[in-house]
């Protein structure tokens, strides 16, 4: 027993190897981005939505430089507008005289309901009356009144950047017509203001590149615009209006080329062959095509010019009755159409979806709005109204 006790005391047990502790790299190395070629980074960023790109401007200096680069902005714009994908398109709504809301265009065609959200536009807190002139490349031109003077600003609702236009003073006029669009010849965005006075029409053009107004002439003296407060529409680099020829009392479509700043007449649809007299003609832009709206006593027709400037390409898209009301509603504005989804129409402050297959009407459910005053469609983009100024300071060096 003594021997066994001696052996137990002298017995050597194997030493246990201590467990190797997990080595955690510093926080900076843990989240370090992989070294990717810049060409690949650019291609990845081009596939992202505007909301993400606005946040990613603050990641690092190189990303901010890429996202602010004009060529990147143009290429991203071409990608989001080149196909039938409407995920990047939204409807801007003037709900009250001083409230602007926004809703996804997709919700009108592919979802059971949509939701209109408030837009925090410049001067919202001042509760001034505003109106939508038009949209182009993600920029929206807004006018507002202050002391009987109309003022403008160009605004990107997606990035919240804005630029206030210089004022040109008050004039003795009876009405106005506005237009907004891109001049590809001079790489410039322009605002058109037509003033109706006792004499000839006064036309002024604002250039975002020079940040100044100037007067142009040459508007045909034999034409008169029937709806002075109707905003003109941009198609194929030109601003379009409907007007009446005083010589023969007939409807005409007149276009102002933003590059050359010259006027020309566009052939109108041959709606007379259907045995109906068009009581009111107005023009719209529908998915980049010139659209003519011919209104009658109890219905209206929507025509689309599939090949710009070619009269034979006019095609009647829909013939739609007015909604049954105590008095016929006579204010229709087509906003968008899809071959397999129908035509979205603003019918006197109510959204209506006209099915092109079974010719039925549907009222899309949009939470947050009831009746509204005005609506237009814009694409989410990175285009800046301050593109001709110095680049912003980097958010993160």
Automatic annotation (TrEMBL):
Tell me where on the tree of life, at the top rank, the source sits: Eukaryota
Q: Which SMART domains match?
A: FBOX
Q: Which SUPFAM superfamilies match?
A: F-box domain
UniProt domain F-box: residue ranges: 30-76
> Do you know which CDD domains this protein is assigned to?
F-box_AtFBW1-like
Ranges where the record places region Disordered = 1-21
Q: Which Pfam families match?
A: F-box, FBA_1
Q: Which PROSITE patterns match?
A: FBOX
Recorded hits in PANTHER family, A to Z, give:
BNACNNG10540D PROTEIN, F-BOX PROTEIN CPR30-LIKE
Q: What is this protein called?
A: F-box domain-containing protein
Question: Which organism is the protein's source?
Answer: Rhododendron griersonianum
């Amino acid at each position: 027993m003594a021997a066994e006790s001696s052996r137990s005391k002298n017995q050597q047990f194997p030493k246990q190897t201590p467990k190797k502790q997990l080595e955690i790299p510093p926080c900076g190395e843990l989240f370090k981005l992989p070294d990717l070629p810049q060409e690949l980074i650019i291609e990845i960023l081009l596939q992202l939505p505007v909301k993400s790109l606005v946040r990613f401007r603050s990641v690092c200096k190189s990303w901010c430089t890429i996202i602010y680069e004009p060529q990147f902005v143009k290429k991203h714009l071409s990608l989001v507008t080149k196909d039938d994908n409407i995920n990047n398109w939204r409807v801007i709504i003037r709900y009250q005289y001083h409230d602007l809301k926004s809703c996804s265009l997709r919700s009108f065609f592919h979802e059971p309901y949509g939701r209109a959200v408030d837009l925090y536009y410049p001067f919202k807190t001042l509760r001034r009356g505003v109106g939508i002139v038009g949209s182009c490349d993600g920029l929206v031109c807004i006018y507002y009144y202050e002391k009987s003077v109309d003022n403008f600003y160009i605004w990107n609702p997606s990035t919240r950047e804005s630029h206030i236009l210089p004022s040109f003073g008050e004039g003795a006029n009876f009405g106005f017509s506005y237009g907004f669009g891109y001049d590809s010849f001079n790489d410039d965005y322009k605002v058109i203001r037509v003033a109706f006075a006792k004499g000839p029409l006064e036309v002024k053009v604002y250039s975002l590149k020079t940040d100044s107004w100037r007067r142009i002439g040459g508007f045909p003296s034999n034409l008169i615009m029937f709806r002075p407060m109707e905003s003109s529409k941009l198609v194929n680099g030109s601003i379009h209006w409907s007007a009446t020829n005083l010589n023969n009392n007939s409807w005409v479509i007149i276009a102002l080329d933003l590059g050359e700043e010259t006027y020309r007449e566009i052939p109108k649809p041959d709606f007379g062959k259907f045995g109906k007299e068009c009581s009111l003609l107005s023009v719209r832009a529908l998915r980049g095509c010139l659209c003519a709206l011919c209104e009658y006593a109890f219905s209206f027709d929507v025509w689309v010019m599939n090949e710009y400037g070619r009269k034979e390409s006019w095609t009647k898209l829909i013939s739609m009755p007015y909604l049954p009301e105590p008095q016929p509603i006579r204010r229709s504005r087509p906003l968008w159409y899809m071959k397999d989804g129908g035509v979205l129409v603003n019918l006197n402050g109510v959204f209506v979806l006209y099915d092109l297959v079974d010719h039925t009407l549907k009222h899309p459910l949009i939470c947050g709005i009831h009746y509204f005053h005005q609506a237009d469609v814009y694409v989410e983009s990175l285009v800046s109204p301050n593109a001709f100024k110095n680049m912003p300071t980097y958010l993160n060096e």
